[in-house]
Design goal:
Elements: H1 12-15, H2 19-22, H3 27-36, E1 42-46, E2 59-63, H4 67-70, E3 97-101, H5 110-120, E4 125-130, H6 145-154, H7 158-165, E5 168-173, E6 176-177, H8 198-202, H9 212-228, H10 230-235, E7 243-244, E8 248-254
Parallel strand pairs: 1-2, 1-3, 3-4
Antiparallel strand pairs: 4-8, 5-8, 6-7
Protein name: Class I SAM-dependent methyltransferase
Domain Methyltransferase type: 44-122
GO biological process, one term: methylation
Length: 257
Amino acid sequence: MTSTTLAGDVDYATHGHGYGRQRRTDPRLAAWVHAQLGDARTILNVGAGAGSYEPTDRHVLAIEPSAAMRAQRPAHLTPAVDAVAEKLPLDDQSFDAAMALVTVHQWPDLAQGLRELRRVTRGPIVVLTFDGDALDRYWLADYAPEMLAVERRRYPPIATLVETLGGACEVHVLPIPIDCVDGFSEAFYARPEAFLDPAVRRSQSAWSFVSDEVQARIVERLGADLASGEWDRRHGAWRARPFFEGSLRGIVSRPPR
C-alpha cells in the first residue's frame, strides 16, 4: 500500500480538479500583481497551482507540490517544479522577485516558507491572501457560517505575515470586481446562483472541509431563498455593487535598504 504525503491541508488529487477552468486569471487583479513585481525579469512563483497570474513576458519558475495542480497548467506556461515552500531547491538571492498567491494558508510551516521566499529573492515578494477577520463582511456568512469558520482558522493573521516577511511591507485591500473571473468565494458576491453549481464549489478548497450533509443543507437553503426571492429581499443590493472590498489582501514586502 502506498500513502500520499500532503504538502498542505487539502488533498488536491481528490479536490483539485477543475481549478484550471474555474480559477482563471482576472485581468484587474493580474494588473495589480504585475505592477508590484516592478521591473523584475526573473520571478519565482511558489504554490503556483495551475499558473494563474504568472506573467508571460518574463522568466518565471513555478513551484507546485501537487501533481493534480501541475497537470492543469496550460501549455503556454513552463512546467512547474515539484517542491515545497519550506525547502526551495534554489540558491540565495537567485530571483529578482517572488509571488505567492492564495497559498500561504496551505504551508505546514508558514514561518519557514516565508523565510525561504526572502532567502531566494533579491527584490519584492508579492503575497495574495485573505483576512480571516474580514470574512463576516460577506453575505455568505448568513448561509455558510461553518465554512467561513474553517476559513478563519486557516488564514494566517495579516500581522503575522507582515512581521515574518520583514523588510518594508505594505498591505492593500484589493477590490473585487463584480465580474471577477477568478472563482474564489468572494468573486461571486453578486452572483449567488454560482454556489448551486458543484463545479464552482469544488474549485474552492474551503468546501472540502465541510461535510456533505452540511454542504447540502447550505445549498438547499440558498437555492430555496433564491427561488422564493428571499435572498434578493435581504441581499439584492449586492447584485449592483461594482466591486466588493472584502477580505482579499495584497501584501508587498521589499527588502530593507
